[in-house]
Protein 1
Amino acid sequence: MSDLLNIGRTGLAASKKALETTGHNIANANTDGYSRQKVQQTTNVPITKSGLIHGTGVRVTGVNRVHDQFVEKRLRDSTSENEYFQSRADNLRQVEEIFNEIDNGGLNQVLNRFFNSFRDLANQPENETIRSVVRDNAKLVIKDFNRIRTTLDQLSRNIDNSMERTVGDINQKIKEIATLNRKIAELEAMHGETGDLRDQRDLAIKALSKIVKIHTYEDEKGNFNVAAKGVGTLVTAANVVPLRFGTQGIDQSSNGMDGSGEIFYEGRPSTPITSGFMKGSLSATTEVRNKDIKNLRENIDQIAYDFINSVNAIHKRGYVNREIQTDESGNPVSSFDAQGPVTGINFFKIPTSIKNAALNIDMSDDVKSDLSNIATALSPNSSGDNRVALAISKIQHERFMEGGQSTIEENFLKTVGKVGLESGKAQLDAEQSEGILAQVTNVKERISGVSIDEEAANMVKFQHVYEAAAKVMQTADEMFKTVINIKR
Amino acid sequence: MTRVSENSQHASMQFALNKAKNRLENLQLKGATLRSMTKPSDNPVSNVESMQLTSSMNDNKQYVRNGNFALMHLNVTEKSLDELTNILTKAKELAIAQSSDFYNEDVRKNVSKEVSQLRNLALSIANKRIGQKYIFSGYKTLKQPFDSSGNYHGDKGNITLEVAKDFFVPVNIDGHSVFFSETESSSYEPSPLKNFPQMNKSRPDGEQFEDTEIEPSRDLASVDEANPANQGYEKRENIFALLDNLVSGLENNEPKVVQGLLEKFDTAISRLITLRTKVGSITNSVETTMSNIESENIDQAARKSSLVDADIAEIFSDLTRQQEVLKTTYKSTQGMLNQTLLDFLR
């Protein structure tokens, strides 16, 4: 009879534990990264008494979380992938906005206006007012080249700043993981329940894999390791390998800009690992910085350089719009007059190099200071000669870029087209990877997520078992009473 | 059977809602801007094409301006030539009348006054201006082309304007060919830049452009007034000399001299008529080109609109449909949310 009481007691305890777990599940239904838990129970060791085998009730062996580590890994990888495309799309959208000319004018229209103002000047080469219009349009061209270049540079700098914050984030996350590793190891040494801590660790790793693609493994000593794919170990058991952010000079920088941000392991600033990271938001931003923006910058510089030089090459051949002293045969007596040179004048300042040509573009001092220095005539003292102005306006349709392949406009449009395509592709990839991520999340939540309905049903079930077990004890109690009452 | 958990249900719901709302937002943006694209990535190819069209349309606008400008020039030139022809015809009529012995010396004296007046008229036409520009002085548009004795100070510069892409027309006739003698010039210029010194191509290696010495082209600033031999020749041939000779012939009462001038008047008049024909044909081609450009503009505007502008009917029907979709999504989620087994366990 004491057996019966005991069996009832184990049933009561097991049901209570199951109900507790159900409560824990319901309480955490909305906790991020929580995996539902399940009570593992088994029959108690049976005993043999007077030749019969007796059951001795139920025993709780543990509370486990329902978890599939392969799904978890897939979720991590899809998170990295999605973050990569999402962040790439976000960054490229900012870049393409620079070249958005759908509703307002951009470089293409400004350049077009510049060339057309030279056509206007060709109509009336004597006209001072049109010369000032030409100069104003040249100013707009300069401003727009500057705008594009400085905005691109600004985006690069912004990415540098976000990299610095990201490195801080990574360091914090890996510290968190290391701490969790230590706690889990300690608890497991005492055979404690570690499901909740493991959930937290998975959550931290998932957060980390938003930034970089992560690989985790347990080594032969049972240490839990976290490594960034393409770079190396970040966490070994309770130890972290922190990252540091620093800036590089123009010679070592990976994007051709002075003071560009680089990432390296603490204490090893000479070996930057910036470009080693794979997927995640970090590699997306560095890739945009080191490839897309860098290429665009070089492209715009090339366009500015070729534009400046082709305009100058023609403009230099012209004569100023002033009375020039000539000799008998009509040649100028001197190549200078009181207002400066009469021919060979550059319209734009000669760029020192292709690099930064779009940033440093400016009108020459001669053109800035005196409108009559804008040359239209191919022969001196010919106020109506418009051949230089015509030739400059024809640069618009001259295929001289890329070794005679394209006009300035075609080259620029190609650049814009490429930006649009890249950005569109990234948006499409982002949308697709978001779908995949949603699917994997769904799979994970189906396995590990809490279902209130299920818990409710379980609650009813466990409650009934609890009641029944209590009844068993009551019965045992009554049986005791019956036996005791015999004596009366 | 697949398990459904609270979170998986929530995640799929969120995904579906997000997608529906995203589409709606996109359509709403299109409906608000009435553009089928708002950023290059919406349709990179169309974006580039529309940019190309924009600059081509701007170019065309400029070409129309150029065309109008050319027309004004050509019309003034044609009118001047017309007046000049009238003057010469008048002078010729007088010369014919005076070439016989019918009139006496006094009459001839009086007629000579009239002819010298005609000469002054011719000179004023020769120095005609549009705004500040002299139309008969070649490139030297700010310099008075003819002095009072009829010497030419302009050059033989041929000003051309681009009235359509790569289509250049001359808009002036230099004073030399009008008043002095016929010069070889065709009415169509392939391009004034054909003889332009080779453009320096930009060099990728960043090397500097060498400074080439530029020789002013000699054949342009060319009427060499300094050469006395030249001057004498022109004196005989040019319109002012013709009128001068007539005046002096009449003053000196020499009908033979007047008679000898008649043929020269005919050559001069026929030369002017040839020039007028030339100007007329240029005017014609400019007008044709301009109307071509205008119809091209309409085509391009239509093409651009089809690329950039949204199809309003399509957008709004899509918008309504998408709103329905969203409403249905809300309704279907309503059934799932806020209801659990617990509501039915009593």
Protein 2
Amino acid sequence: MTSAEINTCEDALRLLAAHLDRELNDHTHAEVQRHLDACRSCYSRAEFERRLKASIAALGHEPVPPELSGRVESLIRQFTVTADE
Amino acid sequence: MADVATRPLSRTDHTWFAGQVETLLPALYGTAVRLCRDRTDGEDLVAETIAKAWEAFPALRNRDTFRGWMFRILTNTFLSQYRADRARGEVESFDASDDGFSLFERVHQPILLWWGNPEQDFLNGLLRDDLIRAIDELPDRLRTVVVLVDVQALSYREVSTALKIPVGTVRSRLARGRGLLQKALWENARDAGLRAGPQRSGGEDQPDDQR
Ligand SMILES: [Zn+2]
């Protein structure tokens, strides 16, 4: 995906996911951003996808139950090591 | 994992490892629960991941990559134990019509735009449990990719390495997974009547549907 001609909303939306995932090269990323800054329709769409992605990202941290903390601690304590030289 | 260049792990290594694991634990557990769809299984997966990681730790050359490395072990452990449809080279047989499903387009309708900002209202009304349910409904292969990219922010390349699939497959599974996820959110919201009455949330008054 080297060509970075973003001429239409279709071009921008096709690259939107990769743009939000920060998977585009700098040039293409900037081209998509330029379109988003100039096009209200695509901008709204991008904001929507960005917020949805952020909501999903927020699911990634779970409060760790004490049983698990304890289990992990005792597990790690059992790992064998050699003395420091 | 035997490696000629590895050296025995010292007390210092052990302390470093324990500290890193402690920091990563909420993220590892969160990912494990999303992958397994079950808290108890998630706890087992985390414990097994940590045990495997310690075993493989002498072979880890660059400790700056510890985080991605841990998620790779977590994912592979999940895949080898919990995934039934493991067969390699399995045909990607999903309904391609789900790829392009856009929640935004469903919500962003001119009739609703008169009332303000329907898509923002939709997101504001979305509960953590709605999202969890929609992610849990995804088939394993798609859920794994969505969780790793959206929840754990791994790059396409990292996911490709972890799952031993080409980057192009990561892309297509991600598109399908997100399409299905959005469709599920839409259907669940519609069924629940979440958007029964559009509510004002402030913001712009004019419709913003210009092309
Ligand atoms: Zn546009």
